[in-house]
Amino acid sequence: LNLETTYACHCNAGFSGDGHTCFDIDECQSQGGLEGHHCHSNTRCVNTPGGYECECLPGHRRLDRFNCVEIDECSTGTHQCNPHATCRNTQGSYHCLCQDGYTGDGYKCTPICSQTCLNGGECVRPGECQCRKGYVGNSCESDLDECTAGLHNCQP
């Protein structure tokens, strides 16, 4: 009576070899087919043991297992632009430009003031000073007379 049994070893999917010794297939080395990756737009193939993953490029979000789409940080409000800057979307990122009358890198914009704010006043917008208490005028040049303006708490 012959009780001899036979068997065959096979490597799991994502591995190659003779069945006794198996090696990981780097699917990222080729695209498509049985042993290549299927990552598409805005992704980067990352080899994993027995498989691969499609990683989204910076500034992109996952659409499905193989595709990512660009994030428009300007329309989603996820940008870091200054309130006095304009956001411009770019592929995978964005940049900020200070609006007319302001200067800076777009993340920090300071007003360009043609006039000098006097008496400790501070330029808050082009052509506009925010005066310290007690001063008025376009350039904070006038001392406010609280008595004649009725802005005092004096008893008669």
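^ that was protein a. below is b, sequence first then the tokens
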Amino acid sequence: MLVVLTVGFSLPSNLVSKNLPLELSCNFPCALLSSETGWSIETLRLFSCTFRPTEAFGCLRRLTHVFLHSILVNDEELGHLLSNCFALEELEILSCNEIFHLEIPSTLSKLSVLRVLGCKVLQAIEINAPKLSTFHYGGAPVQNCFGNFMICYARTELPSIAPNVVSLTLSSHTETVNTPMLPGKFLNLKYLDILLSGKMIFSPSYDFFSLISFISGSPALESFVLRLKQDVLRHDSIVGESDGDPEDIKKVDCPHNHLKTVTITGFCSSKSLVELTIHILENTCSLKCLTLDTTRDNEISFPMIDRCLTMSKEALTEAHRSLKAIRRYIVGKVPSNVCLKVLEPCKRCQPDSFFPTCQSDLTTKIIPHVQITITIANITSKKNMI
């Protein structure tokens, strides 16, 4: 049953609500949740209101799902709510801008899903929920713990904090530190999705090859997605580097026995990224499909009106160089049992016919830019301290 609650409207005491969305622009009456009505609620959704629970807040013994969107609630007040939700299984906090330190207590023994998105003043997250299996954090890096090395931090700390994580999504817009090779492992990690954007990854000093630390540290990994958001010419391009001496390619002997699919969007001609791709091909006997997308923001496509998001001239030039790098260094290393998919910019991506659709000797493997949907179950992440 769907019940919409407004200030001054009370629910019958015998109502058992299965889903309670609340769209309020003023103070939410916390006393409602401390009544018999509150005891029966299983799902609570609060939107755009002030929420001030106190120490006297009652026990919500049936509450399993909480969604807080654009709510004015501070650290202490949120703590009063969470300390009384012993059955809570899913918690989503979106754009709640009075929370500085989010603490998930160990009393939330059934909590399995946590999403924290767009909380502008958030400085730290501490998670003590023993059964948490999915964690998704979106927003600016938490300065006290991440600084400018979210990916590096995740590789360094998460294996000990969240050893049972199965799906992990990481996003960094200010990465300045390469990922170190470490002994710690994600023994159960199967799905890894990494997004890198921002000006720092444009620097030749950033080593994409260092990301093999994640792959080598995840012996059960089956799917790896790397998304690069950049719109510039690479200054560390392997193209034009004396035609790129193949003997100069960095190599590490490290087999990956379960990796089946690899997708790199925003593929560029950076030498370290080419080296990472070659490493995967040469060390993954289980690989079935490798997708290299040389376009930028390929998901923003409008096929019904024959339009794509126009790429800049710099991005188009870099895509052209990326195709050359793929032909020269990667195609010859693809085993016969591996499906290679290469996506290039189409005419819809190009302003004023910047250059014709790339003519290539890989016509059977390179396909024009189309909208791509990559679906992998439960691509989310789990962390214990951000």
